[in-house]
């Protein structure tokens, strides 16, 4: 059984999609990051970094319980355990390259673009321009690569596509103000639509819907989400 620690944000969404695609049995553990539940000692024992997603596999490789945190690590772990969505062995270097591109590039720059356009206490033109333009550059890199390809590895649907879907699903927030965030990226739009129409995506979108997460962006939320902005005062 997989214990899945979840909040309805892009990185947990990737893992939700894998669990639904692979039809794995899992138990959902909501973590309300706006309330600071990710900082509780019980959760830090699972992810010392205090972020979602995280999983605990009660039937790990040696038969013992194991923890895995970070969405890319979880996708790799589950795909290797199940033998699903890894693609051909010959394409493993390509798969790893794109996974790291998404984990270190498209995801973080998209997240920072969202932060400075939607959450920062004041509009900082340099920061907005920096992260928005880098997010757009990553979109273009992926758009160029996807020309003539159905998926990132060609014709094979893999965890790289699930990883990309998680953040591309928030394109309207990343590229704030764009009527169609994919208008300049036709290959990316085709790819996203390709993934988004999969039956497992609809199921993944419903994960956690029966739990009421905090939606108010008040002082408690800001301190919970961005604790490094609030250093302790001696």
UniProtKB/TrEMBL annotation:
Domain GST N-terminal: 1-86
Superkingdom of the organism of origin: Bacteria
Signal peptide: none
Protein name stated in the entry: Glutathione S-transferase
InterPro entries the UniProt entry points to: Glutathione-S-Trfase_C-like, Glutathione-S-Trfase_C_sf, Glutathione_S-Trfase, Glutathione_S-Trfase_N, Thioredoxin-like_sf
Organism: Rhizobium lusitanum
Domain GST C-terminal: 88-225
Annotated SUPFAM superfamilies: GST C-terminal domain-like, Thioredoxin-like
């Amino acid at each position: 059984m997989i214990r899945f620690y979840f909040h309805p944000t892009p990185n947990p969404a990737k893992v939700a999609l894998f669990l639904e695609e692979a039809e794995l049995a899992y138990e959902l553990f909501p973590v309300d990051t706006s309330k600071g539940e990710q900082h509780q000692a019980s959760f830090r024992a699972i992810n010392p970094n205090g972020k979602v997603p995280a999983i605990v596999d009660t039937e790990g490789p040696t038969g013992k319980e194991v923890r895995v945190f970070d969405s890319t690590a979880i996708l790799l772990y589950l795909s290797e355990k199940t033998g699903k969505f890894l693609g051909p062995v010959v394409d493993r270097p390509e798969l790893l390259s794109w996974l790291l591109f998404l984990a270190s590039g498209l995801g973080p720059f998209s997240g920072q673009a969202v932060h400075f356009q939607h959450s920062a206490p004041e509009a900082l033109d340099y920061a907005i321009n920096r992260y928005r333009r880098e997010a757009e550059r990553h979109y273009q890199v992926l758009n160029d690569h996807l020309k003539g390809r159905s998926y990132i590895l060609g014709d094979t649907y893999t965890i790289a596509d699930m990883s990309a879907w998680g953040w591309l699903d928030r394109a309207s927030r990343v590229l704030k103000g764009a009527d169609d965030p994919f208008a300049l990226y036709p290959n990316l739009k085709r790819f996203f639509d390709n993934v988004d129409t999969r039956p497992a995506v609809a199921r993944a979108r419903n994960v956690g819907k029966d739990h009421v997460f905090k939606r108010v962006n008040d002082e408690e939320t800001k301190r919970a989400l961005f604790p490094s902005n609030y250093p302790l005062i001696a």
